[in-house]
Amino acid sequence: MSTSIETRLWIAQRASAALLALCVAVHLVTMIAAVRGGLSATDILGRTRGSIGWAAFYGLFVVAVSIHAPLGLRTIASEWLGWRGRAANAAAVLVGAVLLACGFLAIVAVTR
Amino acid sequence: MMNAGWRNRGHPAYWAFLVHRLSGLALALFLPLHFLALAQALRGAAALDAFLAWTRSPWVEASEIALVFALAAHLTGGLRLLLIEFVGWKSESQKALIAAAGGIAAFCALAFALNLA
Fold first, then answer.
1. Is residue B74 a contact partner of residue B24, using CB atoms and an 8 Å limit?
2. Could you tell me if residue B71 is inside a domain?
3. Is residue B80 part of a domain?
4. What CATH number does residue A73 fall under?
5. ipTM associated with this complex
6. Which of A82, B16, B30, B103 has the highest Cβ tally under 10 A?
7. How would you label A35-71 residue by residue, b for 16+ Cβ within 10 Å and e otherwise?
8. Which residue, among A31, A66, A71, would best test binding to B if mutated, counting the most B CBs under 10 Å from its CB?
9. A93 contacts A44 by C-beta, under 8 angstroms
10. In terms of DSSP H, where are the helices of chain B?
11. Tens digit of pLDDT for each residue in B96-107?
12. By residue range, what is the domain housing residue B79?
């Protein structure tokens, strides 16, 4: 892959990391608070259903993680397995697409 | 000249690298399952409640605590990496930063575990 594309992927990895830092911090605080007294569907869906704010937040979260995770896995595949090239790049795109699809399915499920 | 695969395994930064990589790997494997679990709500609140009841077993709760640690450690370790890449490597502060990253991650996992109990 050309140097300029690798540079763009490096930037995408770091930019998504910066966005994820904010999303994960919010997610951690929410999780730690939410499990107090036990989790129930009523509690979760009561907080998220019909909420444009949570839908937008999780939408951003899913997009960022669908960029960040495949790029991280691609680096691991390259450094630990020596797996590079077109097949590895295609697998990374596929992982991103699966995360994006599953993520948006989850968002629809909890916010609609 | 050292080759590209050489790493100083005696330095805490090597262990920070390993924790960051393994936590990222664990989170990437867990994420689709997490999304599919939440998607149970498409079949109604009762379906999501049935899944949540399954998560109350000790092994699942222990896994959740480990995942919260992995998530928090990946966050704090990632912030340290962004600091190194965009601000610069300061050798004298690395051990303190790694200790802080580990400490904050442990605190998050402990707070989650205590609230879960």
1. yes
2. yes
3. yes
4. 1.20.1300
5. 0.94
6. B16
7. beeebebeebbeebeeeeebbebbeebbbbbbbbbbb
8. A31
9. no
10. 12-38, 45-54, 58-86, 94-116
11. 999 999 999 999
12. 20-116
Residue B98 lies in a domain: yes
Instruction: Pull the structure tokens for residue A76.
Output: 């691991």
CB-CB neighbors (< 8 A) of B32 in chain A: 98-99, 102
Whether B39 has its CB under 8 Å from any CB of chain A: the answer is yes
Q: Is residue B9 part of a domain?
A: no
pLDDT tens digit string along B45-91? 999 999 999 999 999 999 999 999 999 999 999 999 999 999 988 88
Residue A17 to chain B, least CA–CA distance (Å): 7
Give the model's pLDDT for residue B90. Answer: 83
Q: Domain residues for A61? A: 3-111
Nearest CA to CA, how far is A2 from chain B (Å)?
Answer: 20
- Number of domains forming the structure of chain B: 1
Interface test with B, best of A35, A54, A94, A100 (most B CBs within 10 A): A35
A76 touches chain B (CB under 8 A): yes
Inspect the interface and report whether the beta carbons of A45 and B48 lie closer than 8 Å.
yes
Nearest-neighbour CA in chain B from A49: distance (Å): 10
Q: How confident is the model at residue B9 (pLDDT cuts 50, 70, 90)?
A: confident
The answer to whether the Cβ–Cβ distance between B39 and A28 falls below 8 Å is no
pLDDT tens-digit profile of A47-61?
999 999 999 999 999
Structure tokens that stand for B36 in this block: 């599919």
What pTM does this model have? 0.93
Q: CATH no. for residue B67?
A: 1.20.1300.10
Number of domains observed in the structure of chain A? 1
